[in-house]
């Protein structure tokens, strides 16, 4: 299991460790700096070989090139880590240039100690563009300006420096320098993956550099996986600094840290216990007849609009549901019948007939939304399904209650009801994309989006009142951006709030899919770094996901487990197929993915 820790939690853990007397802040900082240096040499072996301490002083005498590093140190403990990195590189014979603020009055003590240690062996240049100009053409740049302590958008000289670096780092810049971020690229909020003061960062206009490698400590942070985090971090490496003992206890020294936020799947090379499986577990189908493996009912849309539901149904069947039935309005039935074989078709003339179908208590899961439509009849069908889905406990299906997956149009229909969340509960999984999420939770979505960029003025607006209004809106936008404070409201915060409000399990899609329960437990499923699957952004992929989740629930998993497993298998299928993927392929590659999963 890989737990994602916020800045506040990290601070708390560090405090607990130091309070125990078993480790000092200075030791932790030394471990952090050493972790960064080790990660650099593991990533770029040529830099390790070029280090004099490895090759002996004779190397220099033979005219060997001395590698050069520029280390940018900020005003806090992240800067402290930077001073350690600078000293360790210098000890290995590097030419090291350090840029740091001149004013050190507010510097935390451990960082100040490491600054003094550095001063014994090297100089300090100003932390601005001038400082960078006098230390150009390095083999390595180390960004230790801000870490988890970023509280507001950088301003003035610092903003100028960071945006200059944003144009030259990562794979974007003209020089593509090796830029290593200590903990996080400076300017990136480690809780949210947002760049403070810059909602749409671009390589040449961001307030945070694009790193090639990010080395973080103890556990990854949510911001490494959410929003813009992955594109700014380059590669992510986690270094153990020995805080495990204090990770799982609260400030009072007891119990688990709650609510928990976990990464799915866990990081294979993280500092986690090596015996923990890095793959989620799917309940095996061992014995029993088809009804023991769950009966899923998928509602189709009207004539000409049944494809999405058929995709979902096929996804559920391939996932291993014992039986999948499509419930289609009469006018859509011929089209559905012509397209299916292993799936069963039931024809409904009206919502009452659907209600009758739902009296069959062997139907354990109902999936609706894909292609459902937004008309009054669709609303009646949704109402019928909600009315026939008793919450767990009072339920009928194996005592578990009936479970629902509400996707696509069903979510928009919910948002149009007077009480959108009436009748929902933990037996329901809502699977919105960001548009559907905004319809259901407009205030939460607006808070997540942050300040809204005003519309660009067209030439006809360049006069009188329209111009004044446009300028006022632009000023207000700039002010709102500079007033942003860290840690920023994250996608995890938003999905947690949505789950709490609706009472349901909420899965908000994207490359950074987040699942949350009303009690605050949450998971980030990130298709990023070495698990990226950009081919999933294809029409109909979401319909298949709804089917996958339904299928996993039919196999007896709890709704939140099904959401997590469904999202994970969805990405595995996309990765297994690769480029050229279309939604129809997802259920077809699932058997090989499941086979690999079930192998010991
Ligand atoms: N918490 C832990 O367990 C450990 C933390 N360590 C390091 O410490 C870092 C956190 O250190 P800090 O909490 O001191 O925070 P940072 O070093 O990230 O930055 C905080 C400092 O910058 C200032 N600041 C924030 N935003 C600013 C802005 N926009 N413009 C100008 N100044 C700004 C703050 O007032 C504060 O002085 C971590 O990222 C990590 O690198 C490591 O040394 C090892 C252990
Ligand atoms: N860049 C991406 N990387 C990984 N997965 C993605 C990416 N973009 C979209 N997805 C996934 O693809 C699916 C798209 O679903 P959705 O937006 O509902 O589209 P549709 O309605 O066309 O099926 C979601 O599961 C989402 O998480
Ligand atoms: K940093």
Quick structural overview:
The protein is of the alpha/beta class and 600 residues long. The chain is built from 23 helices and 18 strands.
Description:
The protein has 600 residues and is of the alpha/beta class. It contains 23 helices and 18 strands. The strands form two sheets. An eleven-stranded mixed beta sheet has the order 1-9-18-17-16-15-14-13-10-11-12, with helices on both faces. It has a seven-stranded parallel beta sheet with strand order 4-3-2-5-6-7-8. Helix 12 runs parallel beside helix 21. It is elongated, with a radius of gyration of 27 Å. The relative contact order is 0.10. The model is unreliable at 269-278 and 394-398 (pLDDT under 50). Keywords: ATP-binding, Isomerase, Kinase, Lyase, Metal-binding, NAD, NADP, Nucleotide-binding, Potassium, Transferase. It holds the Pfam family YjeF_N. One of its GO terms (molecular function) is ATP binding.
Sheet with most strands: strand arrangement: 1-9-18-17-16-15-14-13-10-11-12
Fraction of residues in H or I helices: 25-40%
Q: Rough shape?
A: elongated
Largest sheet, in brief, is: 11 strands, mixed
CATH superfamily caption of the largest domain: Ribokinase
CATH class of the largest domain: Alpha Beta
> From the coordinates shown, what is the CATH architecture of the largest domain?
3-Layer(aba) Sandwich
- Please give the alpha-carbon distance between the first and last residues: 19 Å
Question: pLDDT below 50 for ≥5 consecutive residues: which ranges?
Answer: 269-278, 394-398
Bound heterogens, unique: ligand NAX, adenosine-5'-diphosphate, potassium ion
Give the overall average pLDDT.
90
What oligomeric state do the depicted chains represent? single chain
Radius of gyration from CA coordinates: 27 Å
Number of DSSP strands? 18
Put simply, the count of helices is 23
The secondary-structure class comes to: alpha/beta
Predict the CATH topology of the largest domain: UDP-N-acetylmuramoyl-L-alanine:D-glutamate ligase
Approximate strand percentage: 5-15%
- Tally of structural domains: 2
